Amino acid sequence: MSFGSLPQAGNLDFAPVCTRAPANATTFLALSFATAPVPVSVAGIAFWLDLTTTSLVFASTSSLGVARFGVPLPAWLGPGFGLAFQYGFIDPCGPQGITASNAMLAVTQ
User: Fold this and answer.
1) What CATH number did the domain enclosing 46 receive?
2) What pTM did the predictor assign?
């Protein structure tokens, strides 16, 4: 997992990007304000985000196995604001039929 551009306040093209995902898979993106100190097992995957501030949105994966979801960063965000991301995929080859990416934390500059 990586980011498509720098996490700067006012960057309307910011997006977490995941490669080597299952092609055309049903995908969701978990967003949180922090990562968890230890992973929580959810449906057989290691979930690394803070459960108290996590939201889920549906995303998509391309036929080449790339997941990208735009998260515009408003200009009023100051430096040091953190957002954590982790992708999950419906994947019949994974444990319990689901796989996940690593989690990443972006801190605005």
Assistant:
1) 2.60.40
2) 0.91
